[in-house]
Amino acid sequence: MPDAPLLEGKVAIVTGATRGIGGAIAETFAAHGATLILNGMDGPALEAAAGEIRERHSASVSAVAGDVSLPSTANDLVRQAFSQDKRLDIFVNNAGVLIDALIGMVTDEAIERTLGVNLKGVLYGIQAAGRLMTRGGGGSIINLTSIVGRFGNAGQLAYASSKAGVIGATLSAAKELAPANIRVNAIAPGFIDTDMVRQLPPEKFEERMASIGMKRIGTPQDVANAALFLASDLSSYVTGQVLGVDGGMLI
Amino acid sequence: MEERVRKVFVDVLSLDPGANAAGLVYNESQGWDSIGHMRLVAGLEQEFDCMLEMEDILDMSSYEKAVEIMGKYA
């Protein structure tokens, strides 16, 4: 990583930032000088995570708890940026849920929850962020999709649908917001070492590992580094892209 | 307050500086299409240093309605 801070003076919102990939993105952005507004479902856990990042990086970090499947959550986050800093430069739609089920056994609740958090949450985030970024003369929106949203996967009907939807949202928003100098890109992680994949049974876990060209599981930091590139001016002319971070995984 | 709203309309819709904005209607008046609407919202938010609620953005169908809505934020 370059030594000079890449996000000095920038204000960033990260959803689902309590742990996993969102936590690594928050930490990396703080290390690069960003002012952070973090979101998570679990208020106390989010406060604790925010406190740790604040201390480690002497960064300005605030926490706004909420469920991203509700439209009010994205608005609350952007309002926080407005009242605190009057601007917003980066919005990372990271919060996500994974509920595996075979076709025929996917419950209505699982569909609602998966599309609610993974897809509707992203749409609300883009809408809320786009407005404040337009006023500030531009920004970068980063949506977390998945390798599964590009290629599909058995047992992940709802999850893959939600993540494919995120790609459609990214492509449309990139076109509509380009004149406002707002870049919109997606990151498609492969198999990343988070609580989400640790839910898998051991044989499935091994099967996935065997499908990775680089023969190692990805780390949240691998994904955070890609997010740093897309958030920073290093990617100033990059929009409407889906960046795979998967170590050459084939599914 | 109304004068501040009028000035934003004049600016965004490129009206004559002294123009009367009364009677302007979304989707009918020159320049006030969906893109013009988002520019009006941005202009009003800038002028009143606020962030509009989504319902207010959708409700803002005429100049008179805009004056009424901005009364809440002034």
What is the topology?
The complex is a heterodimer of chains A (251) and B (74).
Chain A: E1 11-14, H1 20-31, E2 35-38, H2 43-57, E3 61-63, H3 71-85, E4 90-93, H4 108-136, E5 139-144, H5 147-151, H6 157-177, E6 182-189, H7 195-198, H8 202-210, H9 220-231, E7 242-245
Parallel strand pairs in A: 1-2, 1-4, 2-3, 4-5, 5-6, 6-7
Helix pairs in contact in A: 1-2, 1-9, 3-4, 4-6
Chain B: H1 2-12, H2 34-48, H3 54-59, H4 63-73
Cα-atom Rg of chain B, whole angstroms?
Answer: 11 Å
From the N-terminal CA to the C-terminal CA of chain A, the straight-line distance is: 29 Å
Distance between the termini of chain B: 7 Å
Strand arrangement within the widest β-sheet of chain A reads 3-2-1-4-5-6-7
Per DSSP, the total helix count of chain B is 4
CATH topology of chain B: Non-ribosomal Peptide Synthetase Peptidyl Carrier Protein, Chain A
Q: Strand pairing plus helix content of chain A: what structural class? A: alpha/beta
Q: Can you count the beta strands of chain A?
A: 7
Q: Note the quaternary state here.
A: heterodimer
Tell me which CATH architecture of chain A applies here.
Answer: 3-Layer(aba) Sandwich
Largest sheet of chain B: none
Q: From the helix content, strand content and strand pairing of chain B, which structural class follows?
A: mainly alpha
Low-confidence stretches of chain A: none
Kindly estimate the percentage of residues of chain B that lie in beta strands according to DSSP: under 5%
Following the backbone from N to C, one meets helices and strands of chain A in this order, namely: EHEHEHEHEHHEHHHE
- Spatial shape of chain A: globular
| Residue-averaged pLDDT of chain B | 94
- Contiguous low-pLDDT stretches of chain B (5 residues minimum) are none
